[in-house]
Amino acid sequence: MSAPPAFACQACGACCAYSADWPRFSTEDEAALAAIPAAYVDDPAGRMRCEGDRCSALAGEVGVAVTCRVYAVRPEVCRTCEPGDPECLTARRRFGLPVP
């Protein structure tokens, strides 16, 4: 089932730019972490590397068009954020994006 157009992730990206604290690793094993290119991992913090609050793996402009450079191997915390869930809505509000 795909997300409703209002929550099209590739036209949003707010969740990936909301907070440097959100992309923390939690359930990944060593093999899963090793699959993420080292340039995008902040080892001392146990999370994805961020530039400010924005995940360094996020490419594009939030609210316009975005993509994840590591989508196929993204951490579990990224996989659990669902279009329209409370975290999604919180992030969208921060960027002034519509919350239907």
Description of the structure:
- By secondary structure, the chain is of the alpha+beta class.
- The protein has one domain.
- The chain contains three helices and six strands, in the order H-E-E-E-E-E-E-H-H.
- It has helices at 30-35, 76-80, 86-94; strands spanning 41-42, 47-48, 50-51, 54-55, 58-61, 65-68.
Question: In what range is the share of β-strand residues?
Answer: 15-25%
Overall SS class = alpha+beta
User: What is the helix/strand order?
Assistant: HEEEEEEHH
Give the total of beta strands. 6
**What would you call the shape?**
globular
Largest sheet: 2 strands, antiparallel
Structurally, how many domains make up the residues? 1
Low-confidence stretches: none
H/I helix tally: 3
Mean pLDDT: 90
The order of strands across the largest sheet is: 1-2
In which range does the helix fraction lie? 10-25%
Distance between the termini: 18 Å
Radius of gyration: 13 Å
Protein name: Fe-S oxidoreductase
Pfam families: CxxCxxCC
InterPro entries: Puta_zinc/iron-chelating_dom (IPR005358)
Task: Describe the structure concisely for a colleague.
The protein is an alpha+beta fold and 100 residues long. Helix content is 20%, strand content 16%.
Name the descriptors.
globular, 100 residues, alpha+beta, two-stranded antiparallel sheet, 20% helix, two-stranded antiparallel ribbon, 16% strand, Fe-S oxidoreductase, Puta_zinc/iron-chelating_dom, single chain, 6 strands
